[in-house]
Amino acid sequence: MSRKLLLEKAHVEGIRYYDVYRREGGYRSVEKALKELGPEAIVEEVKKSGLRGRGGAGFPAGMKWSFIAKPEGVPRHLVCNADESEPGTFKDRYLMEFLPHLLIEGLIVSSFALGSNDTYIYIRGEYAWIVDILEQAITEAKDNGWLGKNILGTGFDCNIHVQRGAGAYICGEETALLESLEGKRGNPRLKPPFPAVKGVWDRPTVVNNVETLAAVVPIINMGGDEYAKIGVGRSTGTKLISACGNINKPGVYEIDMTISVEDFIYSDEYCGGIANGKKLKACIPGGSSVPILPANLLLKTAKGETRYMNYESLSDGGFASGSMMGSGGFIVLDEDQCVVKNTLTLARFYRHESCGQCSPCREGTGWMEKILHNIEYGKGKLSDIDLLWDIQSKIEGNTICPLGDAAAWPVAAAIRHFRDEFEWHVLNPEESQKRNYGLAHYADAIHVPVTV
Amino acid sequence: MRTLREKNKTVAEETLFKVTIDNITIEVPAGTTILNAARKIGGEVAPPAMCYYSKLQGSGGKCRTCLVEVSKGSEKDPRPMPKLVASCRTTVMDGMEVKNITSPKVLDARAGVVEMLLINHPLDCPICDQAGECHLQDLSYEHGKNGTRYEFQRRTFPKVDLGDKIQLHMTRCILCYRCVFTADQLTEKREHGILDRGDHAQIATFIQKNLQNDFIGNVIDVCPVGALTDKTFRFKNRVWFTKPVDAHRNCNNPKCCGEVQLWMRGDEVFRVTARKDEWGEIKEASNGKTGWICNECRFDKKKTTDWIIEGPSHINRHSVISQGHYVGVHKPKETFTAVMHGRDPKLLMNIHSVSEVNKPNIDLSLLERPAHSTDFK
Description:
The structure holds 2 protein chains of 2 kinds.
Chain A: H1 18-23, H2 28-36, H3 39-49, H4 61-66, E1 76-82, H5 91-98, H6 100-114, E2 116-123, H7 128-143, E3 148-151, E4 156-164, H8 174-181, E5 205-209, H9 210-222, H10 224-228, E6 231-232, E7 235-236, E8 239-245, E9 251-255, H11 261-266, E10 280-284, E11 293-294, H12 295-299, H13 311-314, H14 318-321, E12 329-334, H15 339-353, H16 359-376, H17 382-395, H18 403-427, H19 431-434
Parallel strand pairs in A: 1-2, 1-5, 2-4, 8-12
Antiparallel strand pairs in A: 3-4, 6-7, 8-9, 10-11, 10-12
Chain B: H1 2-14, E1 16-21, E2 24-29, H2 34-41, E3 67-72, E4 85-86, E5 96-99, H3 104-119, H4 135-143, E6 166-168, H5 178-186, E7 192-195, E8 202-205, H6 218-222, E9 228-230, E10 243-248, E11 259-265, E12 268-274, H7 295-300, E13 308-312, H8 336-339
Parallel strand pairs in B: 1-5
Antiparallel strand pairs in B: 1-2, 3-4, 3-5, 6-9, 7-8, 10-11, 10-13, 11-12
Helix pairs in contact in B: 3-4
């Protein structure tokens, strides 16, 4: 049983409401932060904790906070990125729906550390009912003196505003989110200037994921050093994983990043194995935009070592034989799944969600979808596979924001690891319409060359 | 206080950064973008730009044709930049080294961008009014590859009527956003924007309203392709048959500079546009303002008597428009002195009228076919 920091109290009856949350020890971190620690000390604790951004990129949160510019007389803002739209990721939804006060508590502490008097939660439009939950929690917090003017007599004022998005994946990119928050079309901005210098309304801004901000609460409560002891290496603390796909127990799990991928999939505490007694074929371990891995490379690295559920181990081997922790959207595919179809689905998603600013992403995502559609429906050519590879390489790295990369990586990884399945689709156009390629050799042990 | 600030400003302006682009070193003021530094060097070193427009705030960064490789960040931090950067929006640092045409990576990426820009472009140049002055034509000619690998139907859009002056062809649009910035920054009422996203995004007006503003005609000039064209010129002539002439008039509109280019054929004015510089952008007017022109000058003044003509415009000789050779007459050189080794002829006589060699009385207008050498014998 691993240690739980965020979801420890998730199953307490009525934890969604203030009275229960407070009775269970909620808002202690605000008291400690505002009365005992100052803003600098909080940033220092977060730095010491080694907390890495939970939204996908894994950038150290404390470092991000220390970058914020502090020009005289200019207000600063903290923006909580709750635009959780990555296919396969639903951890923030769980947090906000069942533990809204945990997020509010983290937001108050973080706002105090950054000097943000007006803090925003930008939430995806589809989470309409969660807006009500959050707003109720904010009202309760305000009624009990945790928000508003002169919090706990420290002279610190803070208000939290909830802003709903309008259903665009791209608004989860931090600069597009800021544009959208300003009421404009959600197009990503060019960086530099970075949000820490010129963010929302050209004011210094920090944008953090829901889980990152919630993790500030246990960090303040237990201290940064203590938090850093959980986990392994530079993957400190706990991480929420939203597991889905062909597993027995899909859901949101809190892990301390020391367990192996194999344990995570097969142990009864977590996913409980592959559903219906099938075999594992492939897995996208960190949300739709990270590279897909075949079963053999997922459980063991190319060097033959056990792969663990943490930032370093999941990306071991780079893109050639590894993947990424990403946002923690763990999508499992069993032997009956078709990787070509899965890639087509993702390509269709990215085509639909590209903002249309940069030409490679705007045009390339549509092109990839059309080619994948042909291959999937038995109209592909062998040269299409090379063409797909070329198109993705022309998109990757050549766009303003990471959506271009996010659209290119799944296609690249699918071709890299599952090329024979693509070729089978092309060479057997009729058969591929009737049955799937199946498991093939994707779970076979990888030969690790040994140097004597 | 004020003088101090001014002094500081001049000091700041004097800070020069040394930047090396394609092995050519140049000093530019701090805050200059890589693209503008490269334009100072000129020639092939300047990356192509389809969306950046120096006269429009916030433009650039979108088309990705101007991508360059920064092989050395600066003197202080010599690390190269990990990705190719958009040169139009990246400012130079002291000691920066940039590779444009000397980087195979850049050329490859640029060819990729050109291909992407063309896959959904209708390639209807033969019936497009922009042909001959189209930046996408130039771009694909200079940086693209032969043929296409795209085998699907190109996207189309429902037609949007922008009124009787401006024609919108959304299929040709490359979504550079220049017209959106123009409408935003030049006119007080914004009726122009982008609808939808991704490859189905389109330029449109709010509920298909006509664009009524005095200066909205400038969107035609900033459009790099044939997506926005002049309805009063539509299908009337090919640009390379017309002759561009610089002209001006005293325009009553205080914001209009009144300095234009007339596109004429004979005495007929076919089209009026703003004047363009060598990068295809609107030129500065003689009073130092940006040379935007008003709709009245552009659409309504189509007589030579409306204008004071200054003379033929300078057109780059690589442009198809210069094929008319209208700029001046090349007088043949006097060859006598050269033939006579520096001496002047003592006596010159015109023997044409008395000579019977060339049939001086032949009337060419009576011939029903092209004249042949035998006609003069």
